[in-house]
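Q: For a teaching handout, I want to show students what a protein-ligand complex looks like in token form. Below are the inputs, and the small molecule is 3-isopropylmalic acid. Please produce the holo structure.
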Amino acid sequence: MKIAVLPGDGIGPEVTAQALKVLDVFVREGMPLEFEQGLIGGCAYDQTGHPLPEATFKLAKEADAILFGAEGGFQYETLPRGLRPGDALLTVRRELQLFANFRPVVAFPELVGASPLKASHIDGLDLVILRELTGDLYFGEPRGVHAENGVQVGINTMRYDEREIRRIAHVAFRTARTRRRRVCSVDKANVLETMELWRSILEEVGREYSDVTLEHLYIDAAAMALLRSPLHFDVIVTGNLFGDILSDEASMLTGSIGMLPSASMGEGTKGLYEPVHGCAPDIAGQDIANPLASILSAAMMLRMSFGESAAADRIERAVRRVLGSGYRTADIAEPGTKQIGTAQMGDLVFAALS
Ligand SMILES: NC(=O)c1ccc[n+]([C@@H]2O[C@H](COP(=O)([O-])OP(=O)(O)OC[C@H]3O[C@@H](n4cnc5c(N)ncnc54)[C@H](O)[C@@H]3O)[C@@H](O)[C@H]2O)c1
Ligand SMILES: CC(C)[C@H](C(=O)O)[C@@H](O)C(=O)O
Ligand SMILES: [Mg+2]
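A: Here is the structure, written as tokens, with 3-isopropylmalic acid included.
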């Protein structure tokens, strides 16, 4: 069980260190996890001149799973033309064809007071955003900035072919079968041809899963409905860009973006596991970031890549035990709770497991 550990930039190394701390419990118990670290993002660019060095890509390709922190932390202006922050992660996702991005949104009962929404609105919340991760505006051609009659024009292309839509649709329906059998497909089929195709393929695939209810929402209405009636949702399947935006929005239902883990899967069991948040330069280096998204991503890794569901359940229970004891990082702190730092949260989850 070889794990490529790519902590990246900003709070990435701080939160990944806590996930590794927690995984160490299982190593001590004899689980054959092997870790190899690689550089990615701004730190890789600073040290090697490229945000995704060849050695890191090789490591990611060869490992059974990838535990990723966050990338960013370098300035747009210092990047060579054509290189954007986010490129290294996008390359790994795309080249390894990790097209199915699971972003579970679960309101821990201990944290219902940390959300800006009323407790009655989110009590029992358990939905998953299934974000298509290797297509859409992120990768469509043509793209770029060029001059037209002396005027600069920026172009990106929303592109999906029917095979890409079909495979994520199957994942959505199969996932719904393990849950409450409801799929909500989010698109913009009233305006965009790409999304018209998206909707028709979802309908076509949906006919193979007559035991699963399929509904469609436009992205604007979905953004609203997610706040108005979050408990309505089970599996939300959507494209790359809409999924990116909806998941940050949904994170606030749980109290903080520091609570949202993710798993990006392809056809097999190899996956990339990362918190949904970024490198958070505003809080980096202060030991105040919430490491629970990273710790919960490690739990997803044990379950989805290594079939170690009991170990994953134990991590999730340990997180709940620590929250139940009143410990909180700053982002989820409420009056009457005990505010602690990143490393201490990792220590407490470790202790709750041991
Ligand atoms: N997967 C990734 O690597 C990833 C994801 C998103 C953004 N980014 C990059 O990160 C950089 C910053 O982006 P951004 O500010 O838009 O998004 P961000 O997710 O880094 O931060 C958004 C806000 O959430 C807070 N936050 C994020 N994670 C937190 C945590 N674990 N605990 C407590 N608070 C947390 C931050 O302090 C900030 O206020 C950019 O360079 C962006 O490209 C990387
Ligand atoms: C860093 C960026 C490329 C990335 C994305 O847009 O996919 C991030 O926002 C995410 O949600 O994983
Ligand atoms: Mg995002």
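A: Two things your students might notice: The longest helix spans residues 12-28. Residues 126-252 form a domain with the Isopropylmalate Dehydrogenase fold (CATH 3.40.718.10).
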